[in-house]
Amino acid sequence: MPLAQTPQDGFDLDVAVVIVGAGAAGLTAALAARDGGADVLLLERDENPRGSTSMSQGYACAAGTKFQKERGIDDDADRFYADIMARTKGKADPRIARTVAENSGIAIDWLVEKHDIPFRMNIAWAGFFGHSVNRMHGMPTKTGEELHGALIRAAANAGVDLVTGAHVDLVYADPDGRATGVRVRRSDDTVETIGCKALVLATCGFGANHEMVRNHITSFGEAPYYRYFGHEGNEGEGIQWGVELGGAIGCMDAFQGYGALAEPYGIIVNYETVMHGGFTVNVEGKRFSNEVADISGQALNVLRQPQGTGWIVFDDARRALVEDLPEFRDLASLGAVRSADTPADLAKLMNIPADAFLQTWAEVERLAAGAAQCPFGRDFTGKAPLSGRLHAIRTTGALFHTQGGLMVDEGAQVLRPDGSRLPNLFAGGGTACSISGTGVDGYLPAAGLGTAITLGRLAGISAAQLAKD
Ligand SMILES: Cc1cc2nc3c(=O)[nH]c(=O)nc-3n(C[C@H](O)[C@H](O)[C@H](O)COP(=O)(O)OP(=O)(O)OC[C@H]3O[C@@H](n4cnc5c(N)ncnc54)[C@H](O)[C@@H]3O)c2cc1C
Known about the structure:
Elements: E1 3-5, E2 13-20, H1 24-35, E3 40-43, H2 51-55, E4 60-61, H3 66-70, H4 77-87, H5 94-115, E5 120-121, E6 136-138, H6 144-157, E7 161-163, E8 166-173, E9 179-186, E10 191-201, H7 210-216, E11 227-228, H8 237-244, E12 249-250, E13 255-262, E14 267-268, H9 272-275, E15 279-281, H10 298-303, E16 309-315, H11 316-322, H12 326-334, E17 338-340, H13 343-350, H14 354-368, E18 390-402, E19 405-406, E20 413-415, E21 421-427, H15 447-468
Parallel strand pairs: 1-8, 2-3, 2-10, 3-7, 10-21, 11-18
Antiparallel strand pairs: 4-6, 5-6, 8-9, 9-10, 12-19, 13-14, 13-18, 15-16, 16-18, 17-18, 20-21
Helix pairs in contact: 1-6, 1-15, 4-5, 5-15, 13-14
Bound molecules: flavin-adenine dinucleotide (FAD).
Domain FAD-dependent oxidoreductase 2 FAD-binding: 17-445
GO molecular function: oxidoreductase activity
Protein name: FAD-dependent oxidoreductase
């Protein structure tokens, strides 16, 4: 039973602000609520918080940061908003898009300056995929684990009470939709009830809930063998509670896909291998897409190929860009990277028709020389042709993270379908509707963490204010 009436004899414990889910959104909300002077209890179902945040590459997009200004990058909320609307063909919710555009830079600067989160700009980021300027902020190690660890440390320093092994399985509410508390099931199966003045839902999206995916994300109809590669705890509970309390949902068919998940290893292949001149072929040895047009939509492009797989082909120069990353080291040690001195030998190692692959190879050389037009519209000129020792990794398409969720206002407060606010419910990260419009192709790189920390911060500020009032 996900919702219940407030217990008549009260709760085991009362706290001003309860936050459910200790990923980027929940931790950021907790930091902001502590900054606002509230007592905060952060409840996380896993013993060791990981979430999709730890699985990610740790990049967050944000506009108008001090890092951008130092580098002379001309960016602001209007430009970011315009990029969101262009990428989503106007389908992103304008209010949420505007809120994220206006607050993302503030959130990054605040995390860096007030809470020592080691964001920096990724200068090497070559592809913007809809960002008209470089607004990629990431960790020195380029890992979500580093970001997650830094947020957890900051939360401890700020006095956030983080309880792990604490699965929230019930929300208590009054008939007017006011959330009054939650029930927590601990790892040893004991239960506790906790009352609150404000409740922040940061349980991410619903990627691990296959029924919800089936009901909401129709584009997998043509490619039903997708891999879900987000956190297994993201079962959409926060979104469901929000709806049961009377909240509205939006953009439920939107998701972040990725066409470069090593198959069958389930490890990310860093896309710099492709962006800088690598390419992808299917098991017939043929290219099938503009690999750099849409990093998220490439998931469906790959899944639509025979066997739902492709091979990313690159060389030593592109390998050098990524080989120090932990995930690439894992791929190499597991034997996922096939290497050869000639295209013909590489085709043998990929077990694909050599004739077709050699034709593709020759065509890519012509494209790089500007002597032919790519049928998929990719511009290879300006990239050195692949040469020297060659490499290939087999990949498939994956669902990383759902993008639809609860509709929120400028303070990340959850809205009813008529636009009025639920009394004390807030949402951020994958639990809130994102800025990706509909389907797979509205996702701007690093929008997942960008919105998680931006809406998380706003939810924390609003929840602390409400609890104080
Ligand atoms: C492989 C991968 C790479 C990615 N790379 C990037 C990237 O580089 N940049 C980017 O912007 N985005 C990226 N994303 C997306 C990004 O990770 C997410 O958008 C972001 O982590 C969402 O943060 P969150 O706090 O909403 O969710 P999460 O980090 O998933 O946190 C949600 C937490 O809630 C907990 N929880 C769920 N239900 C309950 C419950 N009932 N009770 C208690 N706890 C609960 C979960 O255990 C989890 O710890 C990537 C995603 C994946 C999978």
